[in-house]
Write a structure and sequence with these properties.
mainly alpha
């Protein structure tokens, strides 16, 4: 069980990093971003990618908590 959680955590973390980097690429201002004075609404693929990033972050946290719980129970 612990091995499955570790492998799934690695896969989710790689997907999360890729999703974050794709969002930064869409901003057009480099890796660190910049202050924009205009308000933009996310639409279409950008909105879907943003929501997918949030889901991946929640899944990553849940897997991390489950991994800690499994290791504490087995010790």
């Amino acid at each position: 069980m612990a091995v499955f959680l570790n492998i799934s955590q690695i896969l989710v973390s790689v997907l999360l990093v890729a999703a974050i980097l794709l969002q930064v690429k869409g901003q057009g201002s480099g890796l660190f971003g910049s202050a924009q004075s205009t308000f933009r609404v996310r639409r279409g693929l950008e909105q879907t990618l943003f929501q997918f990033t949030i889901v991946l972050a929640v899944v990553f946290i849940l897997i991390s908590l489950a991994s800690v719980w499994v290791t504490r129970v087995s010790v």
